Amino acid sequence: MTIRVDILGLPVDLVIHDPRHIGIEEALRVSWNRCLRTEGVDAVLTVWCSLDQDAADPPAASPTLSLITAPDVSILRSTVTSHLTLMGIEDLAGTSFLFHATASSHPVTGDVIALVGPSGRGKTTAAQAMARHRGYVTDETVAVLPDGSVLGYPKPLSVKAHALDTIKTQVGPDELGLVAPTPGVPLSLARLVLLSRDPECVTPVVERVPLASAIVELSTEMSYLWKYPAPLYSLARLIERTGGVHRVRYAEAATLPDLLSNPPAAEGNESWSSAEISGAGELTPETAPVSAGLQYRARPTTDALEIDGNILILVENQVVLLSPVGSLIWSATREWTHSDTVHRTLIESFGPHPDSAILAERALHDLADQGVLEQRLIGTGPGPKDPSPGDPQPSSEHPEK
């Protein structure tokens, strides 16, 4: 038994192994009915699904075939949802902006409102509220192509039947009575909104989020941002085209449709531009300092922006907003630089301070802890020595999101 689905543009076949005929295929087909793909499109990947007790002789896994087994149908359905979503995200990595968000579309224009937030923020509840009158696009992953178009992903919604349930039930949008996007109307991102649900909020409000803060917050709810070409620059352009990022503060999801029914008043765009990114250079014996002490160097940066005088950088997979002091240190440490040199640079720019040495050292250590700078200890000779166990160590690598 095979269910043919489209996962964010990726054709996948779900092969159901159900020798006891307990209704696995029917349950999956009903919940995934809006993701069924048309005939004639061959699958790129296959997922073989079975209950544990029926999986005595599963096929061998391969790069194009993955296996899912579970102790019961509910867990199997939940695992299938997570697995398919991850497959779709990985397929689009580097070619689309991938927001952890719910989205709905206008029935006439196809304009999409994406509500961004972490797990537990209420996205699925918000999706149900918004899709009573707008088209249900997704409750999990909003994929935005370079031209601003949105790939629909009307997956089953993950709903807790009871507050104390640990496993969410996978319920199809048709089962919940959610409106479907208008056929033939292209979907295009119109607004990015950060969800901020507060049960004690008395007066719901929509407010503008400054560009730098918006990029930092959005980046924590995006997948593979670092793989996208010129990621910060491209994201800033997308935000600018869609009228900026807004935050909605609310208590009940039922208030969201009215709160977001009209676009916010137009506001002037903030000043921003690309900033020169750092590339870590090697210190040669001829240029190595003789004095002992700590040296710092900016880690290789994927992208950087200057926004109203502040620097925003993407290092590894982390977006960091630098303070004026941090921005100066980052710019001054393109090569290995002694901490004393950094201290003098800060005094030249910001003036003397009785605790300037302590403040400079603290700023350097903070930037190293954030992964912005790497550090090493220099001995009395012309080159670096290996740090001893008690010496300050370079900051650890950030895990992939």
From TrEMBL:
Q: Which InterPro entries match?
A: P-loop_NTPase
Q: Segment Disordered: which positions?
A: 259-284, 374-401
Protein name (Swiss-Prot/TrEMBL) = Coenzyme PQQ synthesis protein D (PqqD)
What organism is this sequence from? Klugiella xanthotipulae
